Amino acid sequence: MSKQLSAGDIIEARCTRCKAVTNHTIIAMIGGQPVRVRCNTCDGDHNYRAPRVKSEPARKTSPARQPGAPRKPKAVMQDEQQWQEAAARLRSGQSVPYAMDRSFKKGDAVDHPAFGMGIVVDMVPPNKVEILFESGRKLLRCKL
């Protein structure tokens, strides 16, 4: 049989400042339940939060994404799809080597020494071109 709790007793609770379950002193009670506590670690006063009971893990309904894994923005997914379509059309002999002093037009296949094969998707005046590479879009300097 457990002891009846009262103000001044020590109890475990989730601390909002420490972000952990620590010992707390009960400050206020309503109907036999603690409602306000003071953390014995950081001296912070807050409402009582019972320690979480570890339960059986919830079942996953969609195995495609791991918890905490970032979602891909829609634009990134569209770029990947556009890249796959463009890569299927490219042949190694059709690309031109990238150079800052060269001019390009939309749809040109570009071979960059660091980023690899890419497709010109946009012209950005006065002297830049946006190229879609397998790793994503890059804004590079060029001659328009």
How would you explain this protein's 3D organization?
With 144 residues, the chain is mainly β. Helix content is 11%, strand content 38%. The strands form two sheets. It has a five-stranded mixed β-sheet.
Keywords:
1 helix, 144 residues, mainly beta, 9 strands, rod-shaped, 38% strand, five-stranded mixed β-sheet
Tell me the layout of helices and strands.
Elements: E1 10-15, E2 20-30, E3 33-39, E4 45-47, H1 74-89, E5 96-97, E6 109-112, E7 116-124, E8 128-133, E9 136-141
Parallel strand pairs: 5-6
Antiparallel strand pairs: 1-2, 2-3, 3-4, 6-7, 7-8, 8-9
Please tell me the overall pLDDT.
82
How many beta strands in the DSSP annotation? Answer: 9
Q: State the distance separating the first and last CA atoms.
A: 84 Å
- Provide the β-strand percentage band: 35-45%
Largest sheet: 5 strands, mixed
List low-pLDDT spans.
none
What does the overall shape look like? rod-shaped
Major beta sheet, strand line-up:
5-6-7-8-9
Query: Can you write the helix and strand succession as a string?
Result: EEEEHEEEEE
Rounded to an integer, what's the Rg over CA atoms? 30 Å
Number of helices: 1
Q: How much helix, percentage-wise, in residues?
A: 10-25%
Q: What would you call the structural class?
A: mainly beta
